[in-house]
Design a protein that fits this description.
The protein has a single domain (7-488, 497-501), classed as Alpha/Beta hydrolase fold, catalytic domain (Rossmann fold, 3-Layer(aba) Sandwich). Helices cover 35% and strands 16% of the residues. The protein is built from 17 helices and 15 strands. The chain has helices spanning 14-20, 85-88, 141-145, 158-162, 166-172, 179-194, 212-221, 248-262, 267-272, 275-280, 301-306, 334-344, 349-355, 361-391, 418-422, 438-457, 493-507; strands at residues 7-9, 23-28, 31-34, 36-38, 41-48, 71-73, 103-108, 117-123, 149-153, 200-210, 232-236, 315-320, 396-401, 477-481, 486-489. An eleven-stranded mixed sheet has the order 4-5-7-9-8-10-11-12-13-14-15, sandwiched between helices.
Amino acid sequence: MMIVPLVLVSCDSPKSATEQGPILQVEVTGGAVEGVAQDDIVSFKGIPFAAPPVGELRWKAPLPVVAWDGVKSASAFAPGPMQDAAFSASLGGPLEVSEDCLYLNVWTGAKNASERRPVMVWIYGGGFGIGMTSSPTYDGTNLAKKGVVLVSVAYRVGPMGFLAHPELSAESGNGSGAYGIQDQIAGLRWVKENIARFGGNPDNVTIFGESAGGYSVSMLAASPSARGLFHRAISESGGNMAPPRMTLKAAEEMGKTYLERLGAKNIQEARALSAETIQSETRGMGSFWPVPDNVTFPGKQYEAYEAGQFNDMPILIGTNSDEGGLFVMQKTTSAGFADMVRKQYPAGADAILKAYPHSTEAEATRSAKDLFRESSFAWPTWAWAKLHSQNGKEKVFTYYFDHRTPTSPDGANHAAELPFVFGNLGGVGGMGTSADNPDDKAMSELMMSYWVNFAGTGDPNGPGLPEWPVFTEADQKAMFFDKEPGAREYPNLNQIKAFDEYFSRLRAGN
């Protein structure tokens, strides 16, 4: 394959020259792509990194990209993966979705291919049921201006990405229902093979993601298939340390029921259905989840970490103060809270109830939100940090995001950190932040600096920044992002340890 050097070339079209700026051409796996330059950053959108997963390739691991002739324009995002448009509308991005969705995007400020800048690869969230790279929140321009090459990778979600079925398991010979994670791994392989041509360093790649993207980062951090494809990991509100949601057998049974609802007798008939028909029976965000196969990622990740079986690298992980506020909105009585805990967590109800105040409706309502925070995000993150610090050689850094805005006076909601991490304050993707608010601007500058420093060296610290200490089991510190950013004792440990006792009993079979 001929490699075209990373050079800026002039556009013959007056419209392109005046409205889009210089265009960059790069030869990548499959052919040449042409990006758009603006404000010293060149963006390449909609680069295919795998064959379209359609027809007979539906519910299969991604295959190599199909080559193209000529120069492909990379000036616009590709459609997002198949998903519920009503959910995807909340992301603020384009609503175009398609089963043909395996594309990625690159933002770079490099002037030539020899610069070898640190690379950051973004993995979006959305409960593994929604999400797309085209959300305005995820625009990589500002992080690229900080000196990294930013890549965002699309992956299949919902039934397209995570349907398990006995026939599919037989086809692969190694389980089914992890196609979306396999897409991410394929995207990372593309980065390893191609990113040097954009001025990036394939030997210095950081993956980062939030929510389902954070869970994905956690899965990849323990994935045998992803070993060697990245070198640092950042997870925002996601850690795959709880017992698996379901076994392969249970997921296959769920898949059989799903096909029955579609009126398909087998996988062949299901592959003949339209993508819209397949999507029509999905019961909302989170109804499909990656199914472990111990090759794509392990089924019992907590135990894998205990045994030292993970990809040891520096990690930076954390959660937000009001994660549950986005998911638990109704008021809860004292009796209702106690009843919920005893039904949902029978093996640890006494310890959990002791850790969460619930004598009044106000306390019970607050505790219901915090319970969601710990069970879904805070405990998995803390457990990951603890296990990595015990059994790995590389550094662990943890954070607690508690920056409050007029729209989140009770704490930082789930995903509230994203505009600050990407520097995209205000507007459609700003989630209630303001580009004119000095506190918001200062917080964004601080977080972008930490994230980029970590991507460059494996340590977020740098000149002029509050010191961020390493997390260890003996000295559990987290960086607080609030009115006075700084390192303090790890937050909410009493509640987290109540859940640690509960999950310990589950692993023991009690």
